[in-house]
Design a protein that fits this description.
By secondary structure, the protein is mostly helical. It is built from eleven helices and five strands, in the order αααααααβββααββαα. α3 packs across α5.
C-alpha cells in the first residue's frame, strides 16, 4: 500500500487551508505565490459548505486545470467566501452539483463582473439541507451570457423602476434606452452585435415584457431593456442574497422603489 500523500490529508475544520482544492501544489512557485490568497479563501469556503467533495475537487482539478483556470476558479470561490462571511449568511451546505457546475464554468472566465455573479450565486446556494438545487436555473442562465449581456442585465436592473404585483411578485416598468446610451453601457457601437445580444437576452427570458418585447425598436432605434421577473431573481441571487426581489428592494404595489432593503 502506498503511503498517504501530503495533499490527501483531510483539512483542518477551522480553516480548511490544507486542502489543495485547485491543484495549487502542482503549479510553479510563482503561480502559487500569486494565487495563494485566493486559494486560502476558496479552501475556507469549500471546507465549510461542501467538505465531503472538497478533496475530490482538488484531485480532479490537479489533473485537468491550467494555472489560468485555477486562478479564475480560486478568485470566484474566494469571493463567494467573502460574501458569505460579510453578509452573515446562515450556516449550511451547497449541493455538490452546484459547486461542480460553478467551478467548471467560472474557471473559464476572467471577466470581473461575471466572476462576481458566479461568486454571488455560490454564496446564495448555501442552504440547509444541502440537497437544495434551486440556484441551478440561475447558474444555467448565467453560463449562457456574454460579458456584454451581463453589463446590459446589470444596468437594466439598476435603472428600471420596480414594484410588487398584487400577489407580491416583482415587476418592472418599461425601460427604453437610446442607442447612444446603450453603446456607452456596452462599450460597442456595433448595432448588429447589440441587436443579436439583446435578442439572446430576450430569448432566455431576461429582458422585455412578455410576449415579444425587448431588443431594438425598428422605428425609434431605442433599446427595450426592461428586466423580467426572472432577471430580477437572477440579479438578487447573484448578489449573494436568498431574499425575494420584493424583499430585497422592499417593493410595494406600484411603488417604483428600487433601494435594496437594509
Amino acid at each position: 500500500m502506498q503511503p498517504k500523500r501530503e495533499f490527501d490529508k483531510m483539512p483542518e475544520p477551522e480553516t480548511g487551508r490544507s486542502i489543495d482544492v485547485l491543484g495549487i501544489k502542482g503549479l510553479s512557485e510563482s503561480i502559487r505565490v500569486a494565487t495563494q490568497g485566493f486559494v486560502d479563501g476558496a479552501a475556507a469556503f469549500l471546507s465549510r459548505v461542501c467538505l465531503p467533495a472538497a478533496e475530490e475537487f482538488g484531485l480532479a482539478l490537479r489533473d485537468r486545470v491550467s494555472a489560468w483556470r485555477a486562478r479564475n476558479a480560486a478568485r470566484v470561490l474566494s469571493r463567494a467566501n467573502e460574501i458569505h462571511v460579510a453578509q452573515g449568511l446562515p450556516p449550511g451546505e451547497v449541493n455538490p452539483r452546484l459547486i461542480h457546475l460553478a467551478i467548471e464554468e467560472a474557471s473559464w472566465i476572467d471577466d470581473a463582473d461575471i466572476q462576481g455573479m458566479w461568486a454571488g450565486l455560490l454564496a446564495s446556494s448555501v442552504s440547509a439541507p444541502s440537497e437544495s438545487d434551486e440556484n441551478l436555473i440561475f447558474m444555467n442562465l448565467l453560463k449562457q451570457l456574454s460579458a456584454l449581456q451581463v453589463r446590459v442585465l446589470n444596468y437594466g436592473v439598476a435603472e428600471a423602476k420596480k414594484y410588487s404585483s398584487t400577489f407580491g411578485l416583482p415587476m418592472c416598468y418599461s425601460l427604453e434606452v437610446p442607442s447612444d446610451r446603450l453603446s456607452e453601457v456596452t462599450g460597442t457601437v456595433d448595432i448588429q452585435r447589440l441587436d443579436r445580444e439583446l435578442d439572446h437576452l430576450r430569448a432566455v427570458g431576461l429582458i422585455g415584457p412578455y410576449p415579444s418585447g425587448g431588443g431594438i425598436d425598428l422605428q425609434t432605434g431605442k433599446a427595450d431593456l426592461t428586466p423580467t421577473p426572472l432577471a430580477l431573481h437572477l440579479y438578487v441571487r447573484a448578489q449573494g442574497s436568498r431574499l425575494s426581489p420584493t424583499e430585497f428592494w422592499a417593493l410595494g404595489p406600484d411603488s417604483g422603489g428600487d433601494e435594496p432593503a437594509a
